[in-house]
Amino acid sequence: xxxxxxxxxxxxxxxxxxxxxxxxxxxxxxxxxxxxxxxxxxxxxxxxxxxxxxxxxxxxxxxxxxxxxxxxxxxxxxxxxxxxxxxxxxxxxxxxxxxxxxxxxxxxxxxxxxxxxxxxxxxxxxxxxxxxxxxxxxxxxxxxxxxxxxxxxxxxxxxxxxxxxxxxxxxxxxxxxxxxxxxxxxxxxxxxxxxxxxxxxxxxxxxxxxxxxxxxxxxxxxxxxxxxxxxxxxxxxxxxxxxxxxxxxxxxxxxxxxxxxxxxxxxxxxxxxxxxxxxxxxxxxxxxxxxxxxxxxxxxxxxxxxxxxxxxxxxxxxxxxxxxxxxxxxxxxxxxx
Amino acid sequence: xxxxxxxxxxxxxxxxxxxxxxxxxxxxxxxxxxxxxxxxxxxxxxxxxxxxxxxxxxxxxxxxxxxxxxxxxxxxxxxxxxxxxxxxxxxxxxxxxxxxxxxxxxxxxxxxxxxxxxxxxxxxxxxxxxxxxxxxxxxxxxxxxxxxxxxxxxxxxxxxxxxxxxxxxxxxxxxxxxxxxxxxxxxxxxxxxxxxxxxxxxxxxxxxxxxxxxxxxxxxxxxxxxxxxxxxxxxxxxxxxxxxxxxxxxxxxxxxxxxxxxxxxxxxxxxxxxxxxxxxxxxxxxxxxxxxxxxxxxxxxxxx
Lengths: 337, 304
Description:
The structure holds two protein chains of two kinds. The relative contact order of chain A is 0.19. The mean pLDDT of chain A is 90. Chain A is built from 13 helices and no strands. By secondary structure, chain A is mainly alpha-helical. In chain A, helix 3 (50-74) packs across helix 12 (287-310). Chain A has one domain. Chain B is mainly alpha-helical. Chain B has one domain (2-115, 131-291): ABC transporter involved in vitamin B12 uptake, BtuC. Chain B is built from 14 helices and two strands, in the order H-H-H-H-E-H-E-H-H-H-H-H-H-H-H-H. Chain B has helices spanning 2-31, 39-57, 60-84, 89-108, 133-137, 142-160, 162-172, 174-179, 184-210, 222-232, 237-259, 266-270, 272-284, 288-291; strands at 121-123, 139-141. A two-stranded antiparallel ribbon of chain B has the order 1-2. In chain B, helix 1 (2-31) crosses helix 10 and helix 10 (222-232) packs across helix 11. Chain B is globular and about 60 Å long. The termini of chain B are far apart. The chains are: A mainly alpha, B mainly alpha. At the A-B interface, helix 6, helix 11 and helix 13 of A face helix 3, helix 4, helix 10, helix 12 and helix 13 of B.
């Protein structure tokens, strides 16, 4: 029936999604909730209106960037599970500029914040890369542990030196000056970060397919020993790709504080970094797949906000839906590698 | 001064206990060749079911048993995916963590703020009256006393019994185990079931012994610290005791400094266990590769 392999893949994906939705429905039933109402709420609230759709795009921005943060180092089999921490450090370093350079006009301040966010998240990840390149600590463990350090670091600043004096007891910085806010599209919350995400995805695809760097990355990914003998510096690629990956997660953090929060708060991310890992894995690291999988996960994340309001379910319940989707995809026939 | 030493020691042991259970859980699985990043989720399921069972039955013992069973069942989901379906271990582990976070939040939502008396403390007669050491080592709950003997038992099982040898062979070279007439899948299932029970106990000790309450995501990364501790312990149960005590000490030091009003931000102190993990692993680095189970992370694909 379906001759085109892409259509075939799409049909399979839809089938898997259906199984996942059925399992989650069963979980909701067990807890005495009406799954049909929950699904109607999720879909009406995300895809059913232009406002809902725009909110889904808003969630998609950090997810795409966080997934790229994983996919870039994954090209040479590095496992970056630290997107969450890199996002927080990126938000922190971008906030430094917003607080200390408030007088700058937006056309100067925003690029400075973006650059600082990128470099902050990048260095945070490159540290784990350097530990790995030396053969001291596996980057998986290092990035995982550094997530907690990064989140505590943000907490330290918003409860301490950067706390808003007028914020009573809320742990947050003062509101950013107007020049530090990313422009948004029309009356929605969709912001310029969408452009960051799409450009980053396109550049990633281009570098992979068309440049010498992409070739060398493929060489290292294919056979590191052969690549080393061919004169490619693996150490440099390990540190550099971790830096770029962490930088993209940092950029996501910058976009969140600048466009969504308008200030630095510890509740900046509901686990975008971890979701990014799962998206990159779902997409097999392919740029187009990352955009598609990010959209699906964005519907789930945005749907979670809605369930919290309409069904009085705890916000982390969407984690169940997300994990069920993953379990079904992970457990499908022939997924093994 | 002696009061500080006493509280520090007692606190290290109390905070180190869930870490030891968690580390042993990860260790059993990794010895069978399976890395489980979802231990965090298993612990949360253990913590919440243990708490709920205790609230309903009034017996912490029932809570502990329920937690171990729930942990085992939950970890079997992971086992099915990575062993039978040969799914990627790291991605499945993270997905399991998310499932544990969500499911425990859903199960525990009605029990936030419920009060329990938790695991009862036993004073060991005579020994508890020895100054400093007595109150530090001999006034604890049953799970604390059981932890160290369990580590020794696990060491004996892994290194002196036939089953332990078979599990280790699967972790090193599943093809060899298969050639010797063993079923690598069955052994990995058994190891992961045991790991789930230990992970459930780790969670139960958090909610019934340490915090004596339920809060969303109360494990706060201890499942990931356990993964690091397994490397620190070089995959050996007895070294895991030293590691858990060291990290329990870091947590305890942080609590004591806060209680004594030391003027350091609590958030900086909270970083201590994570930074310490990293530093220790970095210093340990060199010899690591020789002790890790050789087939860690790979799944037996059947005979070629």
